[in-house]
Write a structure and sequence with these properties.
One of its GO terms (molecular function) is transferase activity, transferring alkyl or aryl (other than methyl) groups. Its main location: membrane. This is Polyprenyltransferase. It is built from 14 helices and no strands. By secondary structure, the chain is mostly helical. It has a single domain, classed as UbiA prenyltransferase (Tetracycline Repressor, domain 2, Orthogonal Bundle). The longest helix is centred in the first third of the chain and has 32 residues, at 40-71.
């Protein structure tokens, strides 16, 4: 089908992980309290921002990864000739138009929630374009740039209740550190890993888990609900990374990256469960099999 190469450009499995960010932010914002009220009107009004913000992140993330391939077209013709653009399945112009349309659609969807949501969406789009264009070529700033995209995406979810952004802005640092670690690991998926980068990623993963545990000091956060998800999170991220560290082979690096990306859903579920209870955490976790199933058909890197 002619549509498949365009879907490959958008990395559908990765988009599912971005939706998990929104659901986490939504839980942290307190918007879920609408559903605890007996009023059906309040329930519907509480769900509407979530709907628009999910649409927004689909557009923003999809557009961002499409432009990644647009900027990498020349390099991919050598290193990854099977990708849609270098293989000739999608023209460079068509890919750029798709990426631009997705980013604009994401911003417009966020605008349906609030001006603040739209502003955060613009920041996500600009941050993604900066990474695609220049950021990824910097060893230090590149991972931080990519992590910032995901941190802002989490805050986009928090903006379901605009006032909550000021209260929970620091939550953005958790995905910033985590995605920075994955980005460091991914640098070796073509030619093999850098040992120091892989060791640094282990430390950053540990920092993420420590930060989530520290959320227990918040009156809104119940750590007991979070712990089972954190155990699963640790089980998913550390074994592939240790294997990659021992062998430093491109295939093992790619598996570690893939595990890290998919486990982002579990990380989000662990924090969401702390803010909104374990049943809500399970709802977020249900995105994991969706992402895994999608990853069988579409690459995540």
């Amino acid at each position: 089908m002619a549509l498949v190469p365009y879907l490959r450009l958008m990395r559908p499995a990765n988009i599912v992980t971005a939706i998990a960010d929104i659901m986490l932010g939504y839980a942290a914002s307190g918007a879920l309290l609408y559903f605890l009220d007996g009023s059906q009107t309040l329930a519907v009004s509480g769900l509407t921002p979530l709907f628009w913000l999910i649409l927004a992140t689909v557009g923003l993330y999809g557009g961002g990864v499409v432009f990644n391939d647009v900027f990498d077209a020349e390099l991919d013709s050598v290193e990854r000739p099977e990708r849609p653009i270098p293989s000739g399945q999608v023209s460079l112009t068509a890919a750029a138009l798709l990426g631009g349309a997705l980013l604009v659609a994401g911003i417009l969807a966020a605008w349906q929630v609030s001006d603040l949501s739209a502003a955060i969406a613009v920041a996500v789009a600009l941050c993604a374009l900066l990474y695609d264009w220049k950021g990824k070529h910097h060893n230090l700033l590149g991972p931080v740039n990519m992590g910032t995209c995901r941190g802002l995406n989490l805050l986009l979810g928090v903006s379901a209740v605009p006032e909550a952004v000021e209260q929970f802005w620091y939550l953005a640092f958790i995905p910033i550190v985590y995605i920075s670690a994955i980005t460091m690991i991914s640098r070796g998926e073509v030619h093999g890993g850098n040992r120091k980068a892989l060791q640094g990623a282990i430390v950053m993963y540990a920092l993420v888990i420590g930060a989530i545990l520290c959320l227990a000091i918040l009156p809104e956060f119940e750590l007991l609900y979070s712990v089972p998800f954190l155990l699963l999170f640790s089980y998913l991220i550390f074994p592939p990374l240790f294997k990659a560290l021992s062998a430093k082979e491109p295939k093992l690096i790619m598996k570690a990256v893939k595990a890290g990306i998919l486990a982002l859903i579990v990380m989000d579920a662990s924090i969401a469960a702390g803010f909104a209870g374990w049943p809500y955490g399970l709802v977020v976790l249900l995105l994991l099999p969706v992402s895994i199933f999608t990853a069988k058909s579409f690459a995540v890197t």
